[in-house]
Fold Fatty acid desaturase domain-containing protein.
Amino acid sequence: MAPAQQNVEVCDEGGAQINMRPKPNGIKDSSDIKLCENNNPVLQEDSASEKFNSDKDFDISKYEAMEFSARIRWPDLIVQLFLHVVTMYGLLLICTNSVKFYTTLFVFATIYTSGFGVTAGVHRLWSHRAYKAQTPLRVLLAFLFTITGQRDIYTWALDHRVHHKYSETVADPHDVRRGFWFAHVGWLVLTPHPAVENRRAALRRTSLDLLADPVVRIQKRFFIPLFALLNVILPIWIPVYCWDESLINSFVVSFVTRFTLNLNIAFSVNSFAHLWGNRPYDRFIKPSENKLVSIAALGEGWHNYHHVFPWDYRTSELGRFNISTNFIDAFAKIGWAYDLKAATSSMIINRALRSGDGTLEEEPDPNFKTT
Ligand SMILES: [Zn+2]
Ligand SMILES: [Zn+2]
């Protein structure tokens, strides 16, 4: 589906805010490479309001040099172990046709439908402000996101802003330099590095835009009852009531397995897409273009592009499989999504020529002048 061009705000080099961010360890040459960071207005404010925050007083090298050993958060570990062990049993039930066909259909339909609440909602809309959305769409996205059970919008978006701003440093909540398992799920069951806590507190003071949205405020305030209703009670009740599934099967498959698969799809962006794949736009960072993650995560695996142009609502170049972009385009057609931000092709090629690994699939225009 073509993007709704009439609503796309094309950003060029002149219009884009490019800031230097703390240089991750291991980068040898930063003199001619500008690492683009999230240029959403909140983070611009953040760098401007140093009296509260921040980069000026925050010396990441001290935190990098600090001795730190994380402790296990046992309640979180036990919850994750429970979810994953029960999910193994749930997958066995599905693979051996031990649950009703409609239950399996319902589980996978819910996983992918609710996934838009993560991709188009808490990620592209609330974390990055890559487009704007009318209230009905924001309510729909908050509803879908709550079904996935991935904490409240405010907490998720705040952590994601910290991740982008301090990617691959000790202040990154799921710093992939600590290995696959830490980036995948370990960060949720271990105590955070003091640098993460420091930056979370700093961004909390400047991410006021999130709480200015009544949809975010309401979802945050009523998160526990909404979580219980949308992630637990309704998914268990619907298969039992509508097609006579057994209560235990519905609990195992429609609640635990669905919830855990949804979590792992989101986790895979932090782990797989930060480790494996090519880096056509910036070879100096770990986020990578990962097709399999993109298929599983509704288009969120084009992660090298996304970390270079985090404000682009497409999170990838046009032509890549990205069903969440199609979702936003469809709502742009009826006016519920608007002010869609996107990078120009010249900006993309420019950046790829400057810092990419040479795997950009498009042939650069020979007449195109780099800056
Ligand atoms: Zn990332
Ligand atoms: Zn992001």
Confidence is low (pLDDT under 50) at residues 1-7, 11-53, 364-371.
